[in-house]
Amino acid sequence: MPIIERIELFQVDLAPKTTRQDAIQSFVTQETPLVRIVCDDGSEGIGYSYTIGTGGSSVMALLNDHLAPMLIGKSPVDVEGLWRAMLFHTHATAVGAITSLALAAIDTALWDWRAKHAGLPLWRLLGGAKSAVPTYTTEGGWLQLPVETLVRQTVEARDQGFLGAKLKIGKPRGAEDVARLSAVREAVGPAFELMVDANQAFSISEALRRADALADLGLAWIEEPLPADDLGGHARLAAQSRIPVAVGESLYSPGQFGDYLRLGACSIVQVDVARVGGITPWLKVAHLAECMNVSVSPHFLMELHVSLCCAVPNSAWVEYIPQLDAVTTERLAIVDGHAQAPTEPGLGIAWDWAAVEQRARVRHRIGHGRPVAQGV
């Protein structure tokens, strides 16, 4: 059985192609921790996670100082056991964003290894529920855009074949949000799906007002209307709003999702594979939601989430927001508005290792062993 003998860590920073601003923050840069696990037989697995501008150095330190050394001499087959050992090793800092992001970088590498070892694309290894998933875009719709640009970009997205688009809300006055969304709805027509995202900007009273004001626009969901720790507020809003409530990108454990689902505090689960701690807990959340007849539409990381969405039956959407183009050699395949499942064994991400080497701000190496034939 292969044994892990070396782990290589890289941090690559990727600037967004367009200005991204929402109600509370701007997306400055994607700090991308990359993990390469190398076994004594030369086999490897590659995983990653991300931040939107801060915390990358902390994730890298946690990986280098604490988590990666635990894996040397272990079998990559035992993914569940390794994930739980790492979770309890970092018990004093879990549940939390930095720990989850570090766990995810390793866990996705382990699953990449496991799928490659089995000779299967990840989505087939994990269940193979479907080979394609509907796609909406978040590459437009940012809050700083004037309404004319918002309308033009959304119409272009529809004409490019996307089946929906997500737009940011959170202007100082609710009437501004209504005017912007009304103009877009009139331009794209009733068949094109529109989602809105408040990025946790509202109080419960303001969320109730804005959800009521937007209710006649036929929106697919209102995303993160309240701070993620306001579980009671989300339950109250979900009970009163005609717009489905979506949450998940700011939840960091299956237990937190369980609380939301038990209270009926959301109608769409947006579990993020990096922020929840990897593929291992992502699957638990997706299957829990399935058991409660709730759909999954994960946040960000389209290059990885397409495989996870194709693995489970209750996935509804993949979010199109490209961020790995600079360090990969292939893009997400979309046909008739549907993201296509990868066909190659593993995660299905074609890394450009020359670009990774060029862009890497931080490098660490744990363990020993001969160099890998492919890579840096």
TrEMBL record:
CDD domains: MR_like. The keyword Transmembrane does not apply. One of its GO terms (molecular function) is hydro-lyase activity. Keywords: Magnesium, Metal-binding. InterPro entries: Enolase-like_C_sf (IPR036849), Enolase-like_N (IPR029017), Enolase_C-like (IPR029065), Mandel_Rmase/mucon_lact_enz_CS (IPR018110), Mandelate_racemase_C (IPR013342), Mandelate_racemase_N_dom (IPR013341), RHMD-like (IPR046945). One of its GO terms (biological process) is amino acid catabolic process. Its cofactor is Mg(2+). Residues 147-244 form the Mandelate racemase/muconate lactonizing enzyme C-terminal domain. PANTHER family: ENOLASE SUPERFAMILY, MANDELATE RACEMASE, MITOCHONDRIAL ENOLASE SUPERFAMILY MEMBER 1. This is Mandelate racemase/muconate lactonizing enzyme family protein. The lineage of its organism: Bacteria, Pseudomonadati, Pseudomonadota, Betaproteobacteria, Burkholderiales.
